[in-house]
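Re: your question about Acyltransferase

S., sorry for the slow reply, the queue was backed up all week. Below is exactly what I fed in.
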Amino acid sequence: MSSAAIDPTPRTAPADRDLTLDLARVVCVLLVVFVHILFTGVGRNADGSLLIEKTVEAQSWFTAASWIANIMPLFFVVGGYAARAGWRSAVARGETADAFVRVRLARLARPALPLFLFFTIALGATRMLGIDPALVDTIAIGVGSPLWFLAAYMIAQALAPLMMRLHERHGAWVLLVLFAASLAVDAIRFLFVGGVLGIEPVPPGGYGLGQELFGIPNIVFVWLFAQQVGFFLYDGWFARRSWWQLILLIAGGYALLWGLVSLGGYTESMLGNQWPPTATMAALAIIQASALTLLHAPLTTLMRTRAAQGAVFLIGSRLMTIYLWHLPMIMVLIGIELLLPLPLPAPGSAVWWWTRPVFLVVVLAAVWLLSLWLIRFETVPAPGVAVVPSRAAIVGAVLLFVLPIIAITAYGLDFPLAAVAAIGAGAALCVTRSQRR
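Result:
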């Protein structure tokens, strides 16, 4: 997540800054971390062998909870709000769209580069040490699962200047076109590719042409839809709705969600509709933007307190590092638990559930210590008096950055893809480095 999506709250916030958005970012990231902790059930079987399971996914309530707890569309909504605000400031400073995209790319690629280098070294070491490839794949695929956001958000931000111009000219028609396009992609994927051609999804860690690859165009259509909703949020469209209209939007969004799921193809769990994204994520974007607006008054009251502002700043100042490094840190901490002669609570047991909040605090503390060094990668140096690279160079850099990440998300994290992603991120930063006059 770029600092446009996860923008740390300044110590002294401008008077016109909406701190409820900073609170939403922090809460959303903490929820992502906690859900990943609940997914990571590691223990030992009766025979002493290692047990790895997705504990929370096996719970009867998980599917229903995912209709509320899958807050990834909200990231793009808030990102759209931030992009519109940032673009207006950039225009006022005389910056071009190319400069705007270059800064967004740097905010993503800089903190991602050390992560990809870490994955490359760690996965290379497992090969040299001869560790069980099946175990490595299981861990690596899970650790690499959140990386899709980097590619999706970068694409949305790169197209933000164009989409804002379309928003100003055509308004809600842009939303309708994007939603119709997402439905068309879903129809091709589920009805033609999965139904007529009978192509099955690629299994985790496998390669080849899978059904889900035909849904990749929705990375553009669905997440641009959510970003456009953020433009409407910035313009005050949702704020001008009365409370009962917002409730109707939420109810209508869930009715649309239920209608889509009942058609078939879509999974009942919203987690399964996240990659590749389906039209259900667009419906959630409307729902979550409406809910955020409905809660704006109490959240504003909360954010007037020094305690809330301090907590949001404390966590928000490292939010990018928390998102990128929390899963590797979870795995490292679990590995330490396995090495120490300590009893592990059985995944899904009462003790396991009660200790998850404690484990969340431990993970956040460990990532915070790590961030004391990594924070330098979250800061984008000011270009000063510089010549911004050409548009062709910026487009090429965006592709260098996002294509390896899409491959990782489609096929799973492994040593070759981690190395390619590290090279791509480094090359993207080199290509877009401003040249001093």
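The chain has a mean pLDDT of 87. Residues 267 and 273 are 6 Å apart (CA to CA).

Happy to talk it through on Thursday.
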